[in-house]
Amino acid sequence: MAGKEKPKAPAKAADDTAPEGERIAKVLSRAGVASRREAERMIELGEVAVNGKVITSPALNVTAADRITVRGESVGTPEPPRLWLYYKPEGLVTSASDEKGRDTVFDHLPEDMPRVMSVGRLDLNSEGLLLLTNDGGLKRRLELPSTGWLRKYRVRVKGNPTEPEIEPLRKGITIDGERFQPMEVKIDRHQGANAWLTIGIREGKNREIRRAMTHIGLTVNRLIRVSYGPFRLNELQPGEVEELKPRVLREQLGLAEGTAEPEAKKPLRRVRPGSAEAGTAKDETASKSSRPRRADPAGTAAPTKSGTARLKPGAGLKSLSETWQKATRRPAASKDGAERSGRDGANPARAPRAGGTTATRNTPRRPTTPRKG
Q1: CATH number for the 83-257 domain, one of 2.60.40.10, 3.10.50.40, 3.40.50.300, 3.30.2350.10?
Q2: Catalytic residue list
Q3: What pTM was computed for the model?
Q4: What is the CATH number of domain 18-74?
């Protein structure tokens, strides 16, 4: 019939057409095998196999049921995201491998660390804070300029810059047709022929600070990254590495509760027998047990669960008072001594005369001489 349109076929649901799982490069990146770009290169070289079949294209989605191997080794389930703070020393390359055979930061990491990737880079002659992670997705997220994180550097330059000289950096400059965003620049102090600056950037282009300093006539002779967003170098020394706690990682990055490992409980501190600490503890226990215990008067102490006596309220002061009275009380005198002391008390001794001696009942009298007629 004319004028009537044919009914349209119902559109298929998007879930029916979308393939299940995630891209193979993303899974490898999350498992800590390599970055997503590096994983794609490994796939093209035929180093990755899925369910026993070598693949050469990263356009493949995999699920947890698929078995993935890289160079013949099985890839386990992705670990929770982890993040480390590392003080990169000067003279190490940040890349995983160097065509010139120079040492990389990964050659100097602790042996018990899992396979990690660097977040961003630091030049060969730069030092300071370098973030390391086992999760490729987290690495990509932290490197995006959209995060807007400020990266601060302590920079020593040759020369004595002035405020008018560094003002163009605060407004943004263009070098060889490339636009550099405004920087935060502060002159800290002048030290002989050098000066120390604190510089903050948000882009992180290749050799950005060194190129900017050269543009205004200054030469950088030392560059230390001291912070990367909310993460600080703090007291780390060159070559040291410190892992962030999962709770801190969740708070700073807004990760879900289950994405980071729960914090491990600290084990109870035990003293090994035979150690110096064990001997000290044993001596202290022996000295405590050898101390005399205070006698408790009847009714002043109550037994506890451990069997030891526990004083009632106010009983301690009473016990102390009675003990003090017993200790200061004079011993009781005998009957003869009491009678003698009574007689002595009734007839006290006279005070001695001048030039004479005191006469008492026990003092023998001087014999008298008869008078001559």
Answers
A1: 3.30.2350.10
A2: 123
A3: 0.58
A4: 3.10.290.10
